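Journal club side-thread
Mid-discussion, someone asked how the predicted structure for our own chain would compare to the paper's figures. Pasting it here so we can look after the session.
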Amino acid sequence: METNHKTGLEDSYVIRNNKKLRRGYTTGSCAAAAAKAAAHMLLGKERVTEVRLMTPKGILLNLEVLDVTQGENWVSCAIRKDGGDDPDVTNGILVYARVEKRSEPGILLDGGTGVGRVTKPGLEQEVGSAAINKTPRQMICREAETVCQSFGYTGGLGIVISIPEGVEAAKKTFNPRLGIVGGISVLGTSGIVEPMSEAALIESIRIEMNMRLAQGAEYLLITPGNYGETFLKEQTDLDLSAFMKCSNFVGETIDMAVDGGAKGILFVSHIGKFIKVAGGIMNTHSRCADARAELMAAAVVHAGAEYGLVRQILNTITTEEGLGLLKGAGLLEPAMEWITGRIHYYLNHRACDRVKIGAVVFSNEYGLLGETAYAAELKEILKKR
């Protein structure tokens, strides 16, 4: 989003895949800045056009105050979200804070239009609460309390954070699946958006897993992406209530399950992702590692293939192409037996055997390819009741 207003992030960049990407600021920072500006206008009785906000990351923001309205005992204003070069459905939306005087001391914080409500246990906020996460809540309250102190105000303040465009934006997020209804979450642990942040995606996986475990799901059904979801729905009779996606973060997902006290995980994955796990690769993104052809070639060597087939496998572009060669040579079954054995070893090695892990591996063209040692047991546990 282009703006002539200087925010303090003009020269703040990260490098991702050899590209220079501009940082932005979170919805949490917007909410805290809007609350600070509105409280200042309410108690100081003067118009504010800019507001300074120190983020938890230690970066000072200078944000433009927009759409100011006020009454006798309240003020409302907005800050426009700028996610930098991070693709996000919230980029450019207005985050409002309405601050009102209260006779009771202290800060009473709530969410209004476009801020989701928590309807399921296991999230950072209790059921019924506004989906304003811990760090943004602390930022909002801290800024409001600081303004109160600066003006010697000893009464209380009621603060309502609203994001009118959040109602529509939420439809493009995982919020409905997580049990957050009516809008988006007010997020941010550092106050700053790191473009293309893997940390943010891993944190979203952690949040969903914690919710599943809090709802009593001792065994988790996990797939990297859409192929696995389609396979589960069309080719299995498993209960999808404990289903979630882990993207490329296989290792981190196992770590979270161990930390959260899960008893077991059944991964269901396309061969293109999980053949990498057969080599101990726990982040399956292509920029981290791509040993698909090499691992498949190793599998056919173990299956007794001749050099010519091994060389053909090494020259393949896709795993589906390699599977076709294996099937044509009559080596698909023994090769997959070796691959699933290696997958079993590395998954359970990562978990230090503290969580029982199985995997089902499939191909879009050839269907079910193989299962690891614990898969049958975990499938029985996860079947629809």
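Post-session note: The radius of gyration is 25 Å.
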